[in-house]
């Protein structure tokens, strides 16, 4: 089962913000820690998460964070101008001219 399919399960999630922890030199936004509790997961899904985490030498919690980040944030989209600028120069326009072989004008 892939990551996105795993997130499609019917889950009941509770998200809370804990602001009681203060770190020296940090702002309130940096000090807040989000907590996610996911309920009603099948045992085989939990086992798959643990196996995937073990293969990558991560904790199940770290693996869960990375799956959520990849699914929800995904790769950043590039601007069209950047994509076009990255196309290599492969020749002159005349190199790509096509000879008309039928009787159309």
- Helicity range: 25-40%
For the sheet with most strands, the description reads: 2 strands, antiparallel
Q: Total strand count, please? A: 2
Using the CA coordinates, give the radius of gyration: 25 Å
Return the domain count. 1
Strand residue content: 5-15%
What class, by secondary structure content? alpha+beta
Mean pLDDT: 77
Shape: elongated
- What's the SSE pattern? HEHEHHH
Descriptive account of the structure:
The protein has 105 residues and is an alpha+beta fold. The protein has 5 helices and 2 strands, in the order αβαβααα. The protein has a two-stranded antiparallel ribbon with strand order 1-2. Helix 3 (43-55) packs across helix 4.
Break the fold down into its secondary structure elements and pairings.
Blueprint: H1 3-7, E1 12-18, H2 28-31, E2 33-39, H3 43-55, H4 60-72, H5 80-85
Antiparallel strand pairs: 1-2
Helix pairs in contact: 3-4
């Amino acid at each position: 089962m892939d990551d996105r399919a795993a997130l499609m399960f019917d889950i009941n999630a509770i998200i809370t913000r804990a602001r009681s922890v203060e770190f020296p030199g940090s702002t309130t936004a940096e000090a807040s820690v989000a907590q996610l509790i996911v309920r009603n997961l099948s045992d085989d899904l939990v086992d798959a998460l643990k196996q995937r985490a073990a293969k990558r030498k991560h904790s199940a919690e770290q693996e869960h964070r990375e799956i959520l980040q990849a699914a929800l944030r995904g790769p950043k989209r590039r601007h069209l101008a950047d994509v076009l600028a990255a196309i290599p120069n492969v020749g002159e326009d005349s190199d790509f001219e096509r000879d008309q072989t039928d009787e159309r004008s």
